[in-house]
Every structure is written in C-alpha cells, then in structure tokens.
Write a structure and sequence with these properties.
The complex is a heterodimer of chains A (113) and B (114).
Chain A (H helix, E strand, L loop, with lengths): L2 E4 L4 E4 L4 E3 L1 E4 L5 E7 L5 E7 L5 E4 L2 E4 L9 E3 L8 E8 L7 E3 L3 E6 L1
Parallel strand pairs in A: 2-12
Antiparallel strand pairs in A: 1-4, 3-9, 5-6, 5-10, 7-8, 8-9, 10-11, 10-12
Chain B lengths: L3 E4 L2 E4 L5 E7 L5 E8 L3 E10 L2 E4 L7 E2 L9 E3 L8 E8 L3 H4 L2 E2 L3 E5 L1
Parallel strand pairs in B: 2-11
Antiparallel strand pairs in B: 1-3, 3-8, 4-5, 4-9, 5-6, 7-8, 9-10, 9-11
The chains are: A mainly beta (113), B mainly beta (114).
C-alpha cells in the first residue's frame, strides 16, 4: 500500500534560519504530493502541491519538488519566521475509487525570535 | 467564503451515549471524507463518500457510521462511543479529480469520551 515517511521531530529553529523537512513516499502508481500545515488550534491548510515528476510547488516562501527518482518531496524555506511555527504534514493521493490522502505523521516546527 | 464547517468544535461525552458530528461544505464538492488525528499516528481515514448515497470504509471505520443523503452534508455518527475514540476529527472535501485539486479541511472537532 501507499505510505509517507517524514523525518522525526520536533524541529526548533531561530528566526531567519533555513528549513528543510524531509519527506519520502511509497506508492503503487503516480501520486500527487502535498504539504499541509496545521497552525495551533486550527484545521489543516493546503500549503503546496505537485502533481507530476519534477513539478515544483511553492507558496508563502515554501518550496518542494516532486522527485520521482528518489521518491521524495522535501519541504524547504530559505528564511523562517516565528509565524511559521506549526505542524507540517506531507501527504499523497492517487486517482482511484477512494483517492484518499495518505499522511505522514507530521512534524512540529517551532521558530524562536 | 468556500469552506467546510464542522460542529461542534469541542465535545465531551460519556461512554455509550450516541453522538453525531456534523460536516457541511458549500463548494458543491462530490468527494467528502472523515479523518481522525492521533499523536504519533498522523491522520487516518475513517470513511469517505464519492457522491450522494455512495459511501465506503477507510482505514479505521470500526465504531463509526456515516451517511450522505445530500451532497453538502456528511455527518459522522458514533452510536456507542468508547474512550479509544477520543481524538481530533477532521472532515474534508474535494471536487472530482481530488488528487490534482487538493482537499479543503474543516477546523476539526476535538472529542473526549470518558
């Protein structure tokens, strides 16, 4: 079956530091890949997505590139802010009868001033 | 505003007392789904619906029921809640072709069963 593996957390960074959150996946077909963000006390928001190999998703300074050869979708940001403190989930979905999202376990990012 | 609305946001109940968590979307989406979020486990799918009157089990359906009588509503029913159903629940919806368009999530319902 499909699965998503995220790096272990939590992660604590200083403001303006560079961020990388690793995500790798296993899928039987050609999934679409997503990063979702969950701010404290809120629901999940779609941060960015990529639907085919070599696509780059980007939003709010975050980027991730769909790497089929390494089955990865790592999230990066050049300079994090305190407001980026949240839980980040990598997820995939394949077109099919269910088309469900398969999530990684999530990672908590804390950014200190 | 396009959104998925869940109610209630917080609920504390006792073991065995039937409850319903409502979910409604205003985007005319065909696909709706329920997830539960537990620490260290991420989000796991409970049930999903591809359209009106079409529902099916996800990965963790035991102890839950759903119905899809109207396109906009997808309630989650716990007929006899147990403490292991204490969790954070999310409803999500998407247009057909969900993998490419992404999903819209509700704000969540935090359920405690004592």
């Amino acid at each position: 079956g499909n699965s998503v593996t995220q790096m272990e957390g939590p992660v604590t960074l200083s403001e303006e530091a560079f961020l990388t959150i690793n995500c790798t996946y296993t899928a039987t077909g050609y999934p679409s890949l997503f990063w979702y963000v969950q701010y404290p006390g809120e629901g999940l928001q779609l941060l960015l997505k990529a639907t085919k190999a070599d696509d780059k998703g980007s939003n709010k300074g975050f980027e991730a590139t769909y790497r089929k050869e390494t089955t990865s979708f790592h999230l990066e940001k050049g300079s994090v802010q305190v407001s980026d403190s949240a839980v980040y989930f990598c997820a995939l979905s394949e077109l099919g009868a269910n088309s469900k999202l398969t999530f990684g376990k999530g990672i908590t990012l804390s950014v200190r001033p | 505003e396009a959104q998925v609305t869940q109610n209630p946001r917080y609920l504390i109940t006792v073991t065995g007392k039937k409850l319903t968590v409502t979910c409604s979307q205003n985007m005319n989406h065909e696909y709706m789904s329920w997830y539960r979020q537990d620490p260290g486990l991420g989000l796991r799918q409970i049930y999903y619906s591809m359209n009106v009157e079409v529902t099916d089990k996800g990965d963790v359906p035991e102890g839950y029921k759903v119905s899809r009588k109207e396109k906009r509503n997808f309630p989650l029913i716990l007929e006899s809640p147990s403490p292991n159903q204490t969790s954070l629940y999310f409803c999500a919806s998407s247009a057909a072709g969900a993998p490419r368009s992404g999903y819209t999530f509700g704000s969540g319902t935090r359920l405690t069963v004592v």
